[in-house]
Amino acid sequence: MKRLFIFLIALFVGTFVDAQQIDVPKAVRDAHAGKYASTANFSKIGNLYLAEFSDKGENFVAYYTEEGMWAKTEKVVPFETLKEAIRTEIQNRFLGEGSRYTLDKALVIETPTGGVFESARFKMDGGGTITIYFNMDGTMVKREVVQ
User: Fold this and answer.
1) Which helix (H) or strand (E) segment is 72 a member of?
2) What pLDDT is recorded for position 9?
């Protein structure tokens, strides 16, 4: 229920942002239509365009450059579906007692190079987020911090 509520808020915000006449380049719209059959709500973060959409009851966000190059697609998944080694690593390194992180969401991320990662995004005390990427074997491979 909480996940549905969050998705509906994200959908509302996406619709509101789109209603504010975000200028989405034709190349981005065409790239999304060519990759996914689903209609999307577009927004922009930094220099990337985000296409939020649903397909077969699952929620996705696809990222595109201004030129229409696909950068990645994120799918929100239940934390419990991440591999046990990844859940353990997250619990031990990021969610222990006194942690300055709060789990925001668990993700499966697909990239243009064929990489598929399990990931966790955290909210940090004092603001900002950190996203941790894990290979499918459970090895941490990358961190992205957004202040």
Assistant:
1) strand 70-77
2) 52
